[in-house]
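Extended Data, record Phosphoesterase
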Amino acid sequence: MKILLISDIHGSLFYAEKAIEAFEKENARFIAILGDELYHGARNPLPLEYNPKGVAELLNGYSDKIIAVRGNCDSEVDEMVLDYPVMSTYSTILYGTRRIFLTHGHIYNENNLPSLSKGDVFVYGHTHIPKAENINGIYVINPGSVAMPKEDNPNSYGVICEDSILIKDFEGNLIKNIRIL
C-alpha cells in the first residue's frame, strides 16, 4: 500500500492539481496532508493560482482518501468547507508493524519529537524543506512543500511504500530516499 505525503499547499490550485496528478500516477491508496491546505499565511506571498475555494473543492473529491492534520495557517472555518477532519494537531496510523506519526511541524518537530519507538516514522511539513533521515532509530520525514519550497528545493511530495520513503519533484525525479528496515 502506498501513501502520498503532501504539505503546505497554501491555497495554490495549480499545485493542488499537481499533487492529485501525483496521487494518481503513484497509484497511492491514501493522501496524508500535513497541514496548511487553504491559506497562504501572513508571512508568505500569494502562491501560483491562489484559489482556496478551488483547492477545497478539488480535495473534497478525494475526501475518502485523505488523512489530514492542522497546520499553523489552518483554522476552524476550514473544516466548514472541507469534507474531512483537519483540526487535529496530529494523527497516528499503523503501517505494517510501524507507527506513523503525522503532524504539521509547528508543535511537534524533529527538535520536539513525541514518544515514538525505534523504527517508527515521524512525518511533518511546515519547514517547506525535504528531509529523510534516521535520527536515533526514528525515521524523520518531511516531503517539502507542494506549493512554496524553500532553500532552492523543488516543489515536492513524498510516497511511503513498503520498505522505503521517497521524496520526489513533480517531474518524478527522486530528491530523497530512505529505506525503512
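Summary. The first helix runs from residue 13 to 26.
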